[in-house]
Design a protein that fits this description.
The protein has 309 residues and is an alpha/beta fold. The chain has a single domain, classed as Alpha/Beta hydrolase fold, catalytic domain (Rossmann fold), CATH 3.40.50.1820. The protein has helices at residues 4-16, 78-83, 103-117, 119-122, 136-146, 180-187, 195-199, 206-211, 213-222, 251-255, 259-271, 293-302, and strands spanning 31-35, 43-47, 55-61, 87-91, 124-134, 168-172, 236-240, 275-279. The longest helix is centred in the middle third of the chain and has 15 residues, at 103-117. The protein is globular, with a radius of gyration of 18 Å.
Length: 309
């Protein structure tokens, strides 16, 4: 039961976290459950916007600790983006109980490559792609934002020749590190009780993950976006709740703690990467440039003082 409660909490977070507040509708995708890879969960939905020339694309990556969740958990934000001439896609990916890292993150990378490969068919502007996501979806989005390009120009699969780089990311409650040796000093021991940390490397318990830490360390280091921050990374907008209590009070508080964002912004500022941090709806920390995630995404994709990679 102890392990089950945090799982239920992250699934609830995945269903409730939102960067946009839009009403439900019956607006169906232009293309639904399109396979982008070889595994059953490798499917995406896309709503194609109307407009002159190739359209910018907003890609949503759902949360759920990499343990659960679904692309449909977001509601219907596509209405907002389609009205602005921005296409919108939402992806599914493998979960760690069935396939631990790198599966969920590399699936998302392939989804971006697949969407680029469909640019001609779906009228996508390859140079204007922005990511969003909450919790684990935020963690994945930040990794894609900061990681070197995974494109392989010599790949037999034409999808893998496409770039994984994007123009920006707007995320909510994201983990900038999943390394237990890094995050426990940041947040206290309760964060380690969240199953995302152990299940990421295929360990059912944190005790097992720590016992076998040397084995898992390369994965923990690789899939922590904090370790990939550099000056040439595209802009990032991070949102968190306002509870700055330390050490973190419980697993749910720890896994979405604002200190993740504080640490990321400190490093980004140090190297010269554009980074915006909203904590507690601006009561604790706010951006001087954008009031919210939507403003940021629109700037990146529509060229309103945003910059693209």
């Amino acid at each position: 039961m102890k392990q089950l409660l945090p799982v239920l909490m992250i699934l609830a977070f995945a269903a409730s976290s939102s960067l946009q507040a839009d009403d439900k509708s019956d607006n169906s995708p232009t293309h639904a459950n399109v396979a982008y890879g070889p595994h059953k969960p490798n499917v995406l939905d896309i709503w194609i916007a109307q407009g002159d020339g190739p359209r910018p694309l907003h890609v949503y990556i759902h949360g759920g600790g990499w343990i659960g969740g679904d692309k449909s958990s977001k509601g219907d934000p596509q209405k907002h983006w389609l009205a602005k001439g921005i296409s919108y896609a939402a992806i599914n990916y493998r979960h760690t109980p069935q396939a631990s890292l790198p599966a969920p993150v590399h699936d998302a990378a392939r989804a971006i490559q697949f969407l680029r490969s469909k640019a001609g068919d779906w009228n996508i502007d390859k140079d204007r792609i922005c990511l969003s996501g909450g919790s684990a979806g935020a963690c994945t989005s930040m990794w894609l934002l900061c990681h070197d390009d995974l494109a392989d120009p010599k790949a037999k699969d034409p999808v893998l020749r496409e770039s994984t780089r994007v123009s920006g990311a707007a995320v909510n409650g994201g983990q900038t590190s999943i390394d237990p040796k890094q995050i426990e000093p940041w947040l206290g021991p309760m964060v380690l009780q969240h199953p995302m940390i152990s299940m990421a490397v295929g360990e059912p318990t944190i005790e097992g993950a720590l016992k076998n830490y040397e084995k898992h360390s390369p994965l923990y280091v690789e899939f922590s976006s904090y370790n990939h921050v550099s000056k040439d990374d595209p802009p990032l907008f991070m949102s968190y709740g306002g509870d700055m209590t330390l050490p973190s009070k419980n697993a749910g508080h720890g896994i979405h703690h604002p200190v993740y964002g504080v640490k990321m912004k400190q490093k980004a500022d140090k190297v010269g990467m554009e980074c915006h941090l909203l904590i507690g709806n601006g009561q604790v920390s706010k951006s001087d440039k954008y009031r919210n995630a939507n403003e940021f995404i629109e700037a990146i994709l529509l060229g309103r003082n945003g910059k693209s990679n």
